[in-house]
Amino acid sequence: MLAALLVAGTAAAQEAPVQAPFITTPPEVVARMLELARTGPEDFVIDLGSGDGRIVIRAAAAHGARGLGVDLDERLVAEATRNAERAGVAERVRFVAGDALRTDLGEATVVTAYLLPFLLEQLEPRLLAQLRPGSRVVTHAFALPGWLPEAVETVKLSQRHTGQGDTSKLFSYVVPAQARGTWRAPGGWQLVIWQDRQRIDVDASRGGQPVTLRLAQLRADRIRLEGAGFSFSGRVAPERIEGELSGAGELVFERAR
Ligand SMILES: C[S@@+](CC[C@H](N)C(=O)[O-])C[C@H]1O[C@@H](n2cnc3c(N)ncnc32)[C@H](O)[C@@H]1O
User: What counts of helices (H) and strands (E) characterise the chain?
Assistant: First the structure.
């Protein structure tokens, strides 16, 4: 329903930053978004299209996080700043006027967004490129195109909402490490990994012989492979995958050039 309400105002946008109307996320949904992101005092939360600042303010007030809200609308940025002062969290959060599609996300460990699908589609590659593995992304109402969610939840609303009706849908994601490529380890092990966001497909071989896998899973920087009679559990870094091979101890793969 939100899409129908919002698209009319946005379809004509071309070069200029695209605007979407200000509709707030209900408080119980804000609370659940931050829980799904496992928000804590170590986190830096960025809300893209921050409206009156409620998500970032709650992240600071209820979870001890720091944060940044970005909105195209300067009046909303001023309102969010006042709300943060009233909530006593002004020292831990900041609101700036700007385009969500140009925001530097490097500091974030949690990103939240209640934005239309066409904006999420443009944001998605930036999230993947700029966020560190293990960072969480939670979207309200619309899914991130192409991403495999960790959880999809429907929250029953205590009051009917202009955009969402009686329920709100939430999507939570974990940013994956970049595991794509060819990796080799002592003992003649080779992994050829194809990757599309959180999904991986792995061709494993040992001494040139294919090794059949029944499971290949990537979550944040943790990779798990299981095949007939073996399992490997490791951590993906830019140039190495270090882990444990069942029954054989440590195994370190290096990225092949
Ligand atoms: C649906 S509201 C969500 C507000 C708040 N995040 C919440 O959940 O209550 C979307 C907000 O995004 C802002 N917005 C839309 N497009 C934007 C863009 N490209 N960059 C920054 N803000 C944008 C709008 O001004 C509006 O305040």
Answer: 5, 16
